[in-house]
Structure formats: C-alpha cells, structure tokens
C-alpha cells in the first residue's frame, strides 16, 4: 500500500494522516485480550461499569511496565513481544508507508513498541483543560494504532493540525527535548483552540510528525480507549539529533516527500 500525493501533501501541511482498516484483525483481537492479563483487579472485562476511572489509589502503580494512575493505564510490558511488532510497525502496509515518508532502507528495525496505552472513561469527571504538548524524545514519525473502536469523544489521539510547522523551530535541536522560549507561549495559544479528535475503529492507524502538538483526548465514552504506539526512527538519528532545526524541515524526509 502506498500513500497518494494528496495524502503526502496532507501530512506535510497538517502534520498527521489517518489511514483506515490497516491492522490485522486477528492481532488487534489478540492485543485486546493481552491487555487483561495484568489489569487493575477492580476492572472487570465483562462489566463496563467497572471501567470508569480514576484507578483506585490502592491499585495505582507508577512502575513503567504497567503504569496505572488516574485515568491512564499504560501497559508497556507486552510491547517487547514480537507479535506486537508485527501488529504495528512491521505490518507490511504500515512499514511501506513509513518508508515512503522517510526513505527506503533508512529506518531502524523495531525491537518493540511503546505498549498498549489506555484512557479510562471519565464518568462524571468535570471538564478538564486541554493538554497540548510535543514529545521530546528523539524520533521522526509517530504511529498510533487503535486495537478497539474509539468513538468521537472517546479519548482519541487528538492533534492540533499544522502545529508541527510552528513547533519545529521552537526546539534548540532537530530531535531532542530542549525548547526555546518560544515553545511555551505557542503551546498556551494552541491550548485555547480545540484539537482535532482523531476517532476511529479497531485497525485504523494515524501517522504523526514528531513535532506536532497533541494530547490523549478526554474519554467521554463508556469504553476504554485502547491504542498501541510506535515511534519510527531513522538509522542516522544519532548524527542529526543535536543539530539545529533545518531551514527546510523536510530535508530529513524521503525525496518523494520533499518533492510533493
Ligand atoms: Fe505525547
């Protein structure tokens, strides 16, 4: 599967791109099952009433392999299992599209993925302010895959379209975390605008530029938002990550992207 010129242009101007029905249904079902192997005890798979957050204090854990706190449940331990790599970055269509964006043969081979990232339903939790942020660890292209349906308002990966163009020069280096004084005012400005809710169905994916403003949406649905995440990294990142941002931010991308 290849991206069209229109899709590449959309990605360049908006900083993200949704593709529907990409992931293998057998593997998304397996991931939904795997999630419950080490769930907070009071959450019962067969009873959605128990899924409403926040996580009980006595069941919370900040241990990174299975982080459970508030409305967030980030089960990272399965991320190193090879079938999870096949589910997401090494899905043949996903890999081909990522190589189309970043260059054939230039991506680091994945040894794992971030894991299964969940947002519990908010229930009666009062409205919260937006939490626009840019990820700071070095990578090129983010990937979110939904392993279950995420309805509108259901805690999608939400983005501020086009914000990658503004945020890119507010970092001191091309790929590291340290930001300039321009970052925070820009972030605050985006927080006054509503992000785009990238809802979807099990099997849908979303590519996102590493400097796009985003947040895990507030989950106003009755179901658990379940996503798998991976970060594509080019083999050359150690050589470029400390350089200042480029005049042309697409020079690190494929020739096809540059020419669109
Ligand atoms: Fe993030």
What can you tell me about this protein's structure?
The protein has 260 residues and is of the alpha+beta class. Helix content is 23%, strand content 17%. The chain is built from eight helices and ten strands. The strands form two sheets. It has a seven-stranded antiparallel sheet with strand order 1-8-5-10-4-3-2. A three-stranded antiparallel sheet has the order 7-6-9, with no helix packed on it. The two termini are 18 Å apart. Fe (ii) ion is lined by residues 133, 135, 214. Fe (ii) ion (FE2) is lined by residues 133, 135, 214.
Observed structural traits:
single chain, alpha+beta, Jelly Rolls, globular, binds fe (ii) ion, 260 residues
Give a brief description:
The protein has about 260 residues and is α+β, with helices and mostly antiparallel strands. It has a single domain (about 5-250), classed as Jelly Rolls.
What is the level-2 CATH architecture name?
Sandwich
Q: In DSSP terms, counting alpha (H) and pi (I) runs of 4 or more, how many helices?
A: 8
Instruction: Indicate the structural class.
Output: alpha+beta
The sequence of SSEs as H and E is HEHEEHHEEEHHEEEEHH
Taking all residues together, what is the mean pLDDT? Answer: 97
Q: State the major sheet.
A: 7 strands, antiparallel
CATH homologous superfamily title: q2cbj1_9rhob like domain
Low-confidence stretches: none
Portion in strands: 15-25%
- Catalogue the ligands: fe (ii) ion
Text of the CATH class = Mainly Beta
Shape: globular
DSSP E strands, number: 10
Relative helix content: 10-25%
Distance between the termini: 18 Å
Number of structurally distinct domains: 1
The Rg value, from CA coordinates, equals 18 Å
CATH topology name, in short, is Jelly Rolls
